[in-house]
Every structure is written in C-alpha cells, then in structure tokens.
Amino acid sequence: MNRRQAFTILEILIAVTILAFASMAIGWKTYRMIERYRFQSDVKRVQSAFQYAKMLAMNTRADWVWSLMKYENGWQALLICREDPDRLTQFSTPMRFQPYTFSFDGESLVSFAFVFYSTGHVEPQGILELQTTSTEKMQVKLSVPTMELLSK
Q1: Mind listing the pLDDT tens digit for each residue in 85-117?
Q2: Closest CA to 147 of 116, 117, 118, 126
Q3: Largest interatomic CA distance in the chain
Q4: Domain map (residue ranges) of the chain
Q5: Distance CA 58, CA 122 (A)
Q6: Residue 32 belongs to what H/E stretch?
Q7: How many whole angstroms separate alpha carbon 68 and alpha carbon 79?
Q8: Are 80 and 67 in contact, with CB atoms under 8 Å apart?
Q9: Can you tell me the distance from the alpha carbon of 89 to that of 106, in angstroms, rounded to the nearest whole number?
Q10: Measuring CA to CA, how many Å separate 115 from each of 21, 27, 84, 136?
Q11: Are 66 and 114 in contact (CB under 8 A)?
Q12: Alpha carbons 125 and 1: distance in angstroms, whole number
C-alpha cells in the first residue's frame, strides 16, 4: 500500500515564517524606494515652483512672493502677487510637502518667503536645504536663485 505523508505542523510553520520574513524585507525595500522617489519628486516640485515664479514675475512685470509655511502634517507653499493679491496662478492653491526639515543658509525654518522681482532678481539668495525626517536621511541643497542642485 502506497501511503502519502502530509506535512507536519512544524514544517508548515517554518515555511510560513520564511515567507513572512521575505515579504517583510521586500515591503521594507519598497517603502524606502517610495520614500526616496517622493522626496525626489518634492525637490523637483520646489525647483519648478521657483522657476515658474521667476518666469511669472518677469512675464507679468509684477513682483511675486513664494511663501513656505510649516503646518501640522508638513509644509505648504503659496505664490502671491505683491501688487495684486487677488491675481490667480497655477499655484493659487497651496502646494503641500511632506514633513521635511527646510533650512535656509543653515537656519531651520518655520515659515519663509522668497520675493521674485519683475527684473528676474530673487531675494533672499543663499542655500535652501531639504532633509527628510524619516529613518533614512535624505538631503539636498539648492542654490537660490538658480535652484541648481549643489548636493544630494
């Protein structure tokens, strides 16, 4: 008589444990990758908002203020015309960012404003730094007003 043996409970438990560890490792790697891409995306959004504000100021011949404010779940950026605050733009609704650490020239920020003049000049000039607050520290430095990456 040909008798078929079933798996024991211990063998099944070991297999489930191995699968759980493998999925946990894959999940952690995926989470870190998503965090990294989210950070890179937000850096690109900051760069494009700066370029947009600079071009908007020169094209409309008006001064614009890009303000960055910290709120409970992250950061909010808003672009406002100095001469006509009722003027609407693509960034009339606030841009939201993750709860990063923003600093300008080494000083940590709670709120900050950049002024884009119609001549193309931007004030203040210096280095804007974004850093994640998660376990994997990611940091980038941007030169104001060119917004070129100084370091990653």
Answers
A1: 777 665 556 677 777 888 888 888 888 889 999
A2: 126
A3: 95
A4: 9-151
A5: 11
A6: helix 9-60
A7: 9
A8: yes
A9: 31
A10: 51, 42, 14, 33
A11: yes
A12: 87
* Pairwise CA distance, residues 117 & 11, whole Å: 71
The pTM of the whole model exceeds 0.85:
no
CA 108 to mean position of chain CA atoms = 16
Out of 3.40.50.300, 3.55.40.10, 2.60.40.150, 3.90.1150.10, which CATH number does the structure's domain 9-151 have? Answer: 3.55.40.10
Length of the chain: 152
Phi, psi of 20 (to 5 degrees): -65, -45
| Residue 18, pLDDT score | 94
**Radius of gyration, CA atoms only, the chain:** 24
At which residue do the structure tokens 């614009």 appear? 64
Worst-scoring range by mean pLDDT, 46-50, 111-115, 136-140?
136-140
